[in-house]
Amino acid sequence: DSLLQEMALNNHGVGAEGLLAAQSVLGGDPEMLGNDGRVEELWAMKAMEHAEVYFNLLCSVEPARLKLSGSQELDDRIYKDFKESFPNLNFGKLTEDDLKNEKAKVEWREFSNRYKDVEDFSLGSLMRMDSTKDYSEENTMLAIKIQFFAIEIARNRDGLNDSLRANFKPTKRAPKPKGKPGMTKGGVNMTEIEHELQQVLGGSHPLLS
User: Alpha-carbon distance 51 to 208, whole Å?
Assistant: First the structure.
């Protein structure tokens, strides 16, 4: 497995700022990641972009309106399964131990394997530990996509993300330097993320019900 995949599986705490710093290191020594160095660098950029877009959504609209998987039916299935599988988890304020101790690893692996039909279910994602706070070095951990879906769907539906609109405002991204080609991953242009952010600010994002 690559370094970032290993980090995601073990949920090492890392903030967006830390990932930015790591990005330059990984880019300077691609052998650390074998043949996947460039892909992992682009993944890191994509993960940060996704985190920014998602947090802007939370600051813009009622979180309970969001359909994170893109399907109300799938969101319902994940939410029900998550609440039944982890009845004692304090998902509003997570610790790394909640996801990476030996017992938790087994439980999360069983949970995750039920969602292999979800596209990129095991892809790394950035997740906030304390639902009342923004992404930061101290408040961010790596999780896999289905963990992110499960925890954030529950936070949205149970009102744990509601205070964000009062305490934070959506921010526009700084324009990219002119003449610099858009980064791509899997054939998807990174400027599509910027378009998502415009949709967020304009209230027309497809994740809104």
Answer: 17
